[in-house]
Design brief:
The chain is mainly beta. It is 4% helix and 33% strand. The strands form three sheets. The protein has a six-stranded antiparallel beta barrel. The chain has a two-stranded antiparallel sheet with strand order 1-2. Strands 3-10 form a two-stranded parallel sheet.
Length: 180
């Protein structure tokens, strides 16, 4: 199986920009594997399609506001997207602009309450970044971070909880769930 097997065109007008107020009103697409028939339903009907022995997998992780907008000491703008917590305030990240954020580069977020040092350049344009701060990292992240959105979502919501699935429990995702 290849990821290209899942490529398809979706008209922009069919892409929801905000979650529904009533989350149980979300739509549910059902594919009957035996017949190939496709039908449309409401998510609240999902129980009607589950049978004994079925396995239902839920991603119950909460999305971190993992997108940090900052600047270099020279004043140039930059962006750091947290991907994997390596422990000890070290994170695997995506950075922009990559050519300016080489090992040793410093980044300042907010009024300096959070700073970072790029430590290592990894494959695929990723970097390891060490963060420096006073206090609790997740609280600072809640203040300074933005929700990471896919490029087809163009609207930011004020309420960060609206980016979470209704069953989100454990902090840890670095991408907003466009589907639960």
């Amino acid at each position: 199986m290849k990821t290209s097997d899942f490529d398809f065109q979706l008209p922009e007008e069919l892409i929801a920009q905000t979650p529904l107020e009533e989350r149980t009103s979300s739509r549910l697409l059902v594919l009957d594997k035996r017949t190939g028939a496709v039908s449309h339903h409401g998510f609240r009907e999902i129980g009607e399609f589950l049978r004994p022995g079925d396995c239902l997998v839920l991603n119950d992780s909460r999305v971190l506001p993992a997108r940090l907008i900052g600047h270099r000491p020279t004043g140039g703008a930059c962006e750091v997207l947290l991907l994997v917590d390596k422990g000890g305030d070290l994170w695997e990240c995506l950075v922009r602009p990559g050519r300016k954020l080489k090992p040793g580069a410093q980044v300042i977020f907010g009024d300096g309450q959070l700073t970072a040092t790029v430590e290592e350049e990894l494959n695929d344009g990723k970097r390891t970044v060490r963060f420096h701060y006073q206090g609790i990292f997740l609280e600072i992240l809640e203040q300074l971070g933005r929700m990471p959105l896919p490029p087809y979502i163009t609207h930011q919501l004020e309420d960060k909880n609206r980016y979470q699935t209704v069953y989100a429990e454990h902090t840890g995702s670095a991408a907003a769930p466009t589907a639960g």
